[in-house]
Amino acid sequence: MKLSAGSPSAENHAHPRASLVPSTGIYEEPVWGGFPDTNFSFEVLKGGTVIQVIECKDRTHLRLGRALDNDVVLEHPSSSRLHAVLQFREGTSECFVFDAGSTHGTFVNKRRLKPCMHAPVFAGDQITFGKSSRVFVVSGTTGLMPEEDPSQIERIRLKTREQLSKSKSEHELQSTTFKSESSAKGSELGITKDDFERDLDAFDWREYGGSFTEKQKTERERIRKSELKVKNLRSELDCIRAKERGDNPLTVGQRTQIFRNEEALHLLEENIDERDEVLNESIRESIRAQHACAQKKKIEKGGKR
Fold first, then answer.
1. Which of 7, 27, 34, 105 is paired with 163 by a 20 to 30 Å CA distance?
2. Is the pLDDT of residue 60 over 90?
């Protein structure tokens, strides 16, 4: 990644919004564009390490792309010739990201932006371009931080729990039938329901040696993928924290990445715990059904004698 020596023009154009000429990659500033009243900068992180700091002093916007005439040259092959623009609003502390119709997209906090629209960004936001692993973190004063919005995390949790609730409802419906059958057959053979359920209470799918249904296999793979993500996030957190020393404190970008990783870890671990219980209960019901079937066969076989 290279920062060119050229500085963008501060001239305002008589256009209500930015425009893009695909054939030349020309970006025209919106009428509200101009010099901000805050000194913005962008920390570029790779693997949790700051490899570059891009200062935006005396700039009205910043062009990023694969072409050499951009302000920041993106070297990743998934980058477009003019990939995106960081645009400032004149006389304010507002910053926007404009995806210039790139092939592989521009992402803010892992969410893909709609092309040719100005999306607001705040201090601590993480911007990525195409398939590059390099992360651009918006840096500035604390006043640039957005208001806390815990509702976003709650919405993620709610969505996850709604999905899990659907699976639980199916298992609970089956459970009523299986428990009734198991209790009835077990009583005839002198096996109490409490004995059978006590053995199942300590059940863990990770130690299960029996067969899985297709739905159970899918759930198992989802849990394993989430556990791998947890492992990778913890490894990245350890790597970032190891860089902190008394004479070398962590940067804003690194602290932000720690915060986001910890939030992601919390959500993933909650998700794993809930999916664990759904899968365990699903397999318990399968075992109850198999047990009830086996007891029924024993009774029928004993009756024939």
1. 105
2. yes
